[in-house]
Every structure is written in C-alpha cells, then in structure tokens.
Amino acid sequence: MAGTGKTARAFDASKRPDNMLIQTGRLTTFGLIGWMATALMSTTAHAELLDVEKDELKFGFIKLTDMAPLAIAYEKGFFEEEGLFVTLEPQANWKVLLDRVITGELDGAHMLAGQPLAATIGFGTKAHIVTPFSMDLNGNGITVSNEIWAMMKPHVPMKDGKPVHPIKADALKPVIDTFKDQGKPFNMGMVFPVSTHNYELRYWLASGGIHPGFYSKKDVSGQIQADALLSVTPPPQMPATMEAGTIYGYCVGEPWNQQAVFKGIGVPVITDYEIWKNNPEKVFGLTKDFTQKYPNTTLALTKALIRAAKWLDENDNANRPEAVEILARPEYVGADAEVIANSMTGTFEYEKGDKRDVPDFNVFYRYYATYPYYSDAVWYLTQMRRWGQIDEHKDDSWYADVAKSVYLPDIYLKAAKILVEEGHVAKEDFPWNTDGYRAPTSAFIDAIAYDGKQPNAYIDSLKIGLKTGQIIADGIVK
C-alpha cells in the first residue's frame, strides 16, 4: 500500500515484456492475456508507453491536502499507465523531505515552492532542484487562537453580525501593540523558512503595518526588528502547538486550519486566496541530475501528475468527495474526512458556524494551475530578497535566470502535448504560447501590482522590507 515505504509491486519487473502496462497488485498470470486485450482496446490508438529509464520510484510528501495529485495519480492508476511503479512515503518535515531528495533516497517529492529555488541559490542548503510541475493554487490559511480572535474582533468590520472578509492585519496590529506594551513576545508559526506560508504570513502582516522581521547571514531566525516572532512548526503539529499556548497563530495548509475550527481552539481569519488571488502553491521537486539521467521517466511522471490534477478539478469538482475519502486515509493526510471536506469541496469555515463558499480555495488544474510559470518563481525570489534571505541586491536578469534554471515548462508542455495526442486532455487546457510570465496583477490584499519581469521595481514598491541596495548588517538596515 502507498505510504508504507514498501514496494508497491508483487511481481518481478525484469520478467515482464518490455513496455507492458501492469496495474499494481491487480494482475494474475491466468488473467494476463485477457487483461492485455482489454488494455489494448481501451487505449487510444496513438498512445505508446514511453521507454522509461527507471520505473521503480519513491516519492515523498507531507501530510497536507495539496499532496492530492500524488495520491490520485497512485490510486487511479495514472502512474502505472505511464509504466511507473511508485511508492508514496510521508516525511517527518520539509527539511527531511528535501534532504532525502538531494541524497537520492527519494526520487522526487511534493515540495514548497521556495525549496527548489532556495536550494539552487544556496540558501539553507545547496543543490540544484528543479520542477516541471506546479501542484496547485491557493490552499493555505492564517489561524489565530480564540484569545487573539476575541482581541481582534472589535477592530474587524462587521455586517449582519458577521465579520467582513477579507480580514486585514490592521485588526491584529492593536493586539500586537498591546503585547509589546506588556513586554510579551507575539509568537506565530509557519512551516519552513522558505515556505509559501512564511511569505504569505509575512505579506499579510506587513500589509497591516506589522513587521515580521528580517534574516541576515549571521542571524537566520528571521526575527530581526520583528513585531511578530515567526518560527517553524511542522504542519500537523500546528493546532496542538497553538492550543498549548506556544504560538498565538499560524499559517499552514489544509486541513490544519479547519482542524482548529473543529477542535474549537482557533479561528482562521484569512485564506491565501484573499492575500493573493490564485497564488501558486506547492511544486513537484526533483534533482536536476534526475531529470537529465531519466528524461523519459521525468516526462512520464509529469504526464501522470497532469492527469491526476485534471481528475481533481474536472466536471466542476465532481470527484472531490472521492478525493476527500482517499486523502483521509492514514497513509495520506490521516485527518477526518469531514475536516478535509470543509475546504476541499468548495467551502471554508472561519469562525465556528461561519462557513462560506470559496470555490477556488483548492485549485489543481483550472487556470493553468499546473504550468510552472517563471513569474511564480520570481515572486518567491522577491520575497526572499525582501526579508533578507537573499542578502544583497540582484539585478532583474538574475531573477529571470534563476527562475529558468529551476522551473521547466518545456518538459511540462512536452508531457501535455503527448496527453493531448492520446486524448486524455484538451488542447485548450494549456498555455502553449506563453513566454512563461503571467500578466502583471494587483490581485493582492494591499493591491500593489506585481510584474514578474520587473522584480526590483516591485520590491521597491512594498512599504516594509529591504529596498534596492539595502542590506542587513549588525542587526540594522544599511
């Protein structure tokens, strides 16, 4: 079974005919001829199995809803139909996951968008990690404890007895000021220093005039000059850590915001969809060496993941209830199906009983969600520079070069082209003529425009954070 760490097959691959499609655990010797006939009749005439260089693969993931494309590609047989025999294995935390991809213990993994970028430029660790596939849009939220929510609520606009969304960090600022006056630190959790969650939480706080702190070469805590002290907590541990009073709030992916609602310990105050509409989230990460050594394998796994993403979104999310039941299994996310469904099926519950329609909270395929845009990579790099993880000024061409060394849309479009020819997907589902950059957008909570081709102008337009030429030295901006 997936997630056990054991091989997913019960037969000797070396003894099968070349290019023979085999469904894991479902083939018997006596059923071979009948199975092959059925497979041939049901396969599109032009479909041919890629000659993959490595067919036994182990992929890692963290127990979050947005690992869904991996689970679905496994459970629906998409990996197998591409000639891949995959084991899925949950990892303890993001650092362990990345380290195991670098060492080759994992062939690839569900990753934070910032991880391949940070590794490639040498922040935290040094390794050339790449991605041919963006896993989803949106999917995160910021939750505060009941105590903090009660303190925020007088500062939140109300209508018909309910908070007006989106809730801005302006409502949190008086609370943090009160903590400061009392000499108490205001602690919040995020999942990893180069996580989307870290940057989204920082963006939201800064948009409300709350300084989330800088990084420097000497101080990698990220808490230099901070009004709110952000630290790392693994996603599944967020609710318990907040309940224990160690942190007062956190930014995390699902189902760990909804879990706080169900447990009655906190209130999600905003989703990342409201911080940046249709923001890019996770990616599927591999070493550059893997993609060069196993090009057909890389292409095949990208095909399988695209098919899984399509399944998750097709027919107006008709498959989401089944996806929820799959993700609820202990080998995947392991949370109650009811909790996962609260956000996975087009709704999101904020204050207990305040459930609202958020149809695009989880997007896996529509809006070109799976295409690895260079401009998505550049945005994350701008946030690394903004907060000091990139410690000195870089010109605009540097951002473009890094993005193009990590994000691999050519592989993605090659996989998509084959899938179109095979009849699995529609041609109009893909941005064939893009230059890799989304159109400039101001769909952020502070309405500041972002153009991926002008990263430095964007960085300079943000009110809080490092600007052109500035560095952190001896704990101060210079």
In words, what does this structure look like?
The structure is a single chain. By secondary structure, the protein is of the alpha/beta class. It has two domains: 13-138 and 281-346 and 361-372 and 407-429, Periplasmic binding protein-like II (D-Maltodextrin-Binding Protein, domain 2); 140-277, 3-Layer(aba) Sandwich (D-Maltodextrin-Binding Protein, domain 2). It has helices at residues 32-42, 68-75, 78-81, 94-103, 114-121, 146-152, 173-181, 196-207, 238-243, 258-263, 272-275, 288-293, 295-317, 320-327, 337-344, 374-386, 396-406, 409-422, 455-461; strands spanning 56-61, 85-90, 108-111, 129-134, 140-145, 158-159, 162-163, 187-190, 229-232, 249-253, 266-271, 283-287, 347-349, 355-357, 472-473, 476-477. The protein has a five-stranded mixed sheet with strand order 2-1-3-12-4, sandwiched between helices. Strand 8, helix 8 (196-207) and strand 9 form a beta-alpha-beta unit. Helix 2 packs across helix 13, helix 5 packs across helix 17 and helix 16 packs across helix 17 (396-406). The longest helix is centred in the middle third of the chain and has 23 residues, at 295-317. It is globular and about 65 Å long.
Output the keywords.
478 residues, alpha/beta, D-Maltodextrin-Binding Protein, domain 2, five-stranded mixed sheet, 37% helix, globular
Number of strands: 16
**Alpha carbon gyration radius:** 23 Å
Provide the CATH architecture of the largest domain.
Answer: 3-Layer(aba) Sandwich
CATH fold group of the largest domain: D-Maltodextrin-Binding Protein, domain 2
Estimate what percentage of residues fall within beta strands: 5-15%
Q: Write out the CATH superfamily name of the largest domain.
A: Periplasmic binding protein-like II
Largest sheet: 5 strands, mixed
Low-confidence stretches: 1-46
Taking strands numbered 1, 2, ... along the chain, how are they ordered across the largest sheet?
A: 2-1-3-12-4
CATH class of the largest domain: Alpha Beta
Helix content: 25-40%
Discrete helix count:
19
Overall 3D form: globular
| Secondary-structure-derived class | alpha/beta
Mean pLDDT: 91
Report the span from N to C terminus. Answer: 55 Å
